[in-house]
Amino acid sequence: MGKKNEEQLRGMNKLPAKKWIAASLAGVLWIMPVLGSEGLPQWASGPASVAQAASSLNVTKLGEEVITSGAIMMKYKFTTVRSGKTATGLADVIRVDLNNPYVSLDVMTGKGGKLTTRQSTGGMAAETGAVAAVNGDYFNTGGEGAPIGGQVSGGVVVSTPSQLNGMYAFAVTKDRKPVIDQYSFEGLLTAEDGAQFPLAGINKGAYSPEDGSSTYSHANAAYIYTDAWTALERPKNSSTTPTEVLVENDIITQISADKALSMAVPKGAYILRTHGLGAQFVKNHLAVGQKLSSAYTLKSKSTQQELDPASLQMMIGGHTILVNDGKATSFSRSTSSIGGFRARTALGYSQSGQYVYVVAVEDNANSAGMSLTELQNFMANIGVWKGMNLDGGGSTTMVDRPLAETSATLTFNTEYGTEQRSVVNGLGVYTSAPKGEVKGIKISGSTVLLIGQKATYSLKGYDTYYNPIDVASGNPSWTASNGSVTVNGGEATAVKAGTATIKAASGTASASTEVTVLGGENLSSLTVGTATAPLTPGASVSVPVTALAKNGASLTVPPASLKWELIGFKGSVQDGKLTVDSVDPGVTTGYAIARYDGFSTAVVLSAAAATPWENFENVSYPIAFTSNVNSVTGTAGVAAGSAEKAGSKVLSLSYDMTAGSGKMYAYAQLNGTSGKNIPAAATSMSLDVMGDMSLNWLRAEVVDGSGKISYIDLAKVIDWNGWKSLNIDLSGSGIKFPAALKRLYVVNVEEGQDERAKTGTVAFDNISFVMPSLSSEAGLPKGTAAMSIGSKSITVNGAKKAIDVAPIVKDASTYVPIKVVLDAFGGSAAWDKNTKKIMVLRGAKALDLTVNKKEFVLNGKRQTAEVAPLILQGRTLVPLRLVSEQLGLTVKWEQKTKTVTIES
Predict the structure, then answer these.
(1) What integer pLDDT is reported at residue 309 of this predicted model?
(2) What is the per-residue pLDDT for 732?
(3) What SS3 state is found at 342?
(4) Which of 280, 284, 238, 226 is nearest to 258 (CA)?
(5) Which residues form the Phosphodiester glycosidase domain (predicted)?
C-alpha cells in the first residue's frame, strides 16, 4: 500500500473527540446556495426524464483489466439519443472488492497530505502510492483550497461538513462497510470556568450557510484550524475580523484580539478562530495559561444516529444523491449549475456492500460526456445500489496503474487534453498485498505507431496479487506477424499500415500484444509546425509534422515517414528542417508538400512573414467594454503593461460577472461596431495574453465584408497567470478576407459555471497575422468567368474562349475539368493516375481530391463534401462549386440560363 503518514494525520486533530458521524461534500465554486426562480433553494429538483433516459441509454461493456488484487478497471461504451440525435461516449469504472483484505480506499489531500495546497489527481496518487485514483470533493476555486464537505482519513477528521442541505458523503468503516448519507456537525467549546460556546466546524473555508443561522459562515462563530490547514488566512474572504486563540496540548498559549495570529498552526496544535459572539466568549472566558476543551459530533440527517470517526477508514464529500435502492432517485439539491453534458465523477456501492464503484465519464474527442440523469441510469445499469456524484467537468480525472506497470497513469484525456486540474482532494485505491509469485508477463510499449516509427518494447511481470514484479530478462525471443512491423531484440519498426501481433518468449513464459500501424486513411489531419515560410534562398525553417488519427490520437510523424515534394524552388528537407536553396524564375509562391502514406499537407512559401498588426502603442480608434448581460460590468481600454510588459501599452479587459447568470460574455470591442481591418487572408495569428487563471474561455470575433461572423478560439481555458504567447492556426477557420477583428473577449459558459471565476483581468499585446496571400495570391488573376451547361466555351472578363469539354450537371452538381478554372483564375493541378488523385495548388491553398471519394484534404485537414470527382468519357471532372469555393472563389448559378458564374 502507498504509505500515508498516519502520525501526521493524527497530529492534525488532537481534540477530544466525542462521537462522530461521517460528513462530506463535493463542489467547485460552491459558496452561495443555488437559488430558484423565487430566490429559495431548490433542494428537491428531481430528474424530469429519468424513465425516458433509462429506456434510451444503451450500455455495453468493452472489457476489463485487473489493477491489483481486489480492484479491476472496467471500460463501458454508452449510446443514447439527445434531441433526436445519437450520442455515444465512454465511461471508466474501478470496482473495488471490500471483501479483499489487501485493497483499501482512502482520501488523498493536496500536497503532503495538507489542505490549502492543491495538486493534480495524478500527483496525489504518485505521492501517496495509490494504484488508482479519481478527483474528489467540490471546492471554492477562489478559496484557499479546502473541501466544501467533510473529510476523514484513517479515522482522523481533516475537515467538517458545511451547513448545506442535500449534500451527501461516502464513507468506508474500518470493518469495511460502505456508507452514503447526509451528515451534520455539532460541537461545543468549554472554558476552564465552565462557560460554553458552540463550535461551528473544523478547517472550513468561508461560505454562506443554508440553515438561516447567519449571513456568513464565520460571523458570530468559532472554528478550529489544525495543522492540516497550511494557509496563513483562516479563511480568506470571510467578511469578518477574527480574534484567534492558539491552543497547544489543550492549554491556551496565545490570544490575538481583533486580528489574526501572524503564524501557521504549529504541529499538533490548533488555532481557535472566532468572531462577534465567539470573540466575546474569548474575551469574557479565556485567558493564556488556561485549559480549553472541545467536543463534537456528526449526525446522520436521515437517522440521527452518531458515528465515531475513529471507526471510519475514510470519508469524502459529494453533492447530490444519484441512485438509491438500485434506481435513479430525485436529486437532493439543485443541479442547475452542474448540468449539461460533461465529464462526470461518481461513487457508489453494490446492494451487498461488497463492491465500491468508482465512476468516471469521459468528455473528450472520443466521448460526448453525460448529463446527471444519464449518469444515474448508467450507474444503476452497472450494479450500483446507492450512489452520489463527486466534482465533475474539468476536474474529472482518473488515473490507474496498468497491469505489470509500476505507477498510475492518466486513464483518459480530461476535458482539457492530458492536462490535469489541481484539486483539493481525491479518492485513492491502495494495496497492501505481500510480494507474490510470478503469475504472468506482458509486453510493455506503444500500441499505435506511424510508418517508419521505431519503438522499444520490454517484458514486465506481475505476481499472484497482480502487482508488478521483476522478471528475469534472460534473452527473450521476439517475433512480429504480417509484415506491418519488424522487430529485433525488442525494438520494433513500423513498415506499413495494418495491425501486427508482437510476441515475446522467455523460457516457458510468453506474451503478445497488438500494434496498429496507422495509414493515411486512418488520419484526420496532418499539421506542419510552420504552415508558411519565406521563399528566400538560404531560408531554413523547422517543419515538424503532427498526425491526428481519426480515433483522436495525436502522434509526431517521424521525418523518415514523410515524402516531400518541392514546387517552385530547389531545396531539401532533412531531419525535420526545410531549406530553400534557390527559387525558380518567375515564381512568387512555392509549396513544400509532405505526404504520409498518400495523405498530404503543405507549407506555403512566399515573401510573407508575421505582419505586426497591433501593439496598442498608438491606438487611434475607440475601445469599449460591452456584454450580453446588463448586470455584467467591467472595463476595456489601453493601459500600462505589467511585469515583462512594463514600459509598454497593452489592451486590458477587466470583468465582473458575479451579478449575472446564464452564458456571459465580457467584450473588449475594437473600433465601434466595425472592428479593425485585417487586409488579407491570414493563415495564422499570434498574440501575447496575460491570463488570470479564471478557467474561462478566451475568444476573438472576426466579421467579413458580408457581415458573416467567425469565432476564433484563443484558449479553451485560461489556465495560466502572467503573460503567455499564443499561436492560432486560422487555415481551417473559413474566414473570408478581407475581414475585421471586432472583439477580444472572455466567455463564462453556463455548463459547469461553478468551476470558473466570475471576476478577473486579462490583457493583450503584440497581435500579428501571417498573411501569405499578400504575396502568394497577389499575382493571381482577378475577375469574372461564366460558363453554360453543354457549351464548350467560357467567358473570362468579357472575352470568350473555347474549352475542350463542356460543363455538365450530374446529381444536381455542375462538373468541369479543373484546368478550366485554373486557366481563368490561376493555380496548377497535378494528376496521379495510380492513386487517381488530383493535387490542386492555388495561392495559399493545397487541395487534394480523389476520384469517386467525397472526402478531400485541404491544407492537411480531411473534410467531406456532398459530391466527389468522377471520370466521364476518359476525362476527369471535378465538382465546380466544391473546388472553386475551397480555392477562395465565389460561384453563382442562374437556373433560367443554366449559367455558372465564378468570381474572384
Answers:
(1) 85
(2) 57
(3) strand
(4) 280
(5) 254-430
Closest to 389 (Cα-Cα) out of 374, 405, 410, 403: 374
Q: What is the pLDDT of residue 661?
A: 80
Query: If you compute the radius of gyration of the chain from its CA atoms, what whole number of angstroms results?
Result: 32
Each as own residue / partner, the long-range contacts of residues 478-484 (CB below 8 Å, 24 or more positions apart, any chain) are 478/502, 478/503, 478/504, 479/503, 480/515, 484/515, 484/517
CB atoms closer than 10 angstroms to residue 37: 6
CA–CA separation, 595 and 860 (whole Å):
10
pLDDT of residue 608: 61
Q: State how far the Cα of 512 lies from the Cα of 478, in Å rounded to an integer.
A: 10
Phi, psi of 480 (to 5 degrees): -140, 145
Q: Please, is 353 exposed, middle or buried when counting C-beta atoms within 10 Å of its C-beta (0-12, 13-18, 19+)?
A: middle
The pLDDT of residue 854 is 92
Phi and psi for 397 in degrees, rounded to 5?
-145, 135
Give the chain's largest Cα–Cα span. 110
Q: What is the spatial distance between Cα 664 and Cα 746, in angstroms, rounded to a whole number?
A: 8
Q: Which residue has the cell 433553494?
A: 41
Task: Say what the alpha-carbon torsion angle 122, 126, 131, 134 is, to the nearest 10 degrees.
Answer: -30
DSSP annotation string for 671-736: TTTT-EEE-S--SEEEEEEEEES---EEEEEEEETT--EEEEEEESS---EEEEEEEEE-TTS-PP
Instruction: Name the β-bridge partners of 389.
Output: 346
Which residues, 6 or more positions from 52, have their beta carbon under 8 angstroms from its beta carbon?
A: none
Name beta bridge partners: 500: 515
- Name, in order, each residue with C-beta under 8 angstroms of 36's C-beta and a sequence gap of 6 or more: 42, 45, 334
User: Is the pTM for the entire model greater than 0.70?
Assistant: no
Rounded Cα gap, residues 371 and 384, in angstroms: 17
Q: Is there a contact between 645 and 765 (Cβ–Cβ < 8 Å)?
A: yes
Reading the block at residue 553, the C-alpha cell is 490520437
Q: Which three cell numbers stand for residue 95?
A: 470496482
Type of residue found at 90: L
pLDDT of residue 718: 95
| Per-residue CA distances from 648 to 325, 487, 644 (Å) | 64, 57, 9
Among residues 305, 286, 349, the alpha carbon closest in space to that of 323 is found at 349
The grid coordinates of residue 126 equal 504518485
CB 715 within 8 A of CB 419: no
Where b means 16+ CB within 10 Å and e means fewer, 218-230 reads bbbbbbbbbbbbb
Q: Which residues pair with 115 in a beta bridge?
A: 229
d(CA 762, CA 726): 14
- Determine the number of helices (DSSP H) and then strands (DSSP E) in the chain: 8, 76
Alpha carbon 119 to its chain's center: 16
On whether the CB atoms of residues 587 and 535 are closer than 8 A, the answer is yes
Please provide the DSSP assignment of 489-531 as one string: TTEEEE-SSEEEEEEEEETTEEEEEEEEEE-GGGEEEEEES-S
- Grid cell, residue 803, equals 474549352
Q: Is 809 exposed, middle or buried (0-12, 13-18, 19+ CB in 10 A)?
A: middle
Give the three-state DSSP class for 634. strand
| Cα three-residue angle 775-780-782, rounded to 5 degrees | 125
For 814, half-sphere exposure in the C-beta direction (CA atoms, 13 angstrom radius) is 27
**Pairing relationship of beta strands 169-173 and 251-256 according to DSSP bridges:** unpaired
Residue 409, all three cell numbers: 497513469
Burial class (CB within 10 angstroms; exposed 0-12, middle 13-18, buried 19+) of 122:
buried
Q: What is the pLDDT of residue 12?
A: 35
Q: Are 76 and 375 in contact (CB under 8 A)?
A: no
DSSP letter at 332 equals S
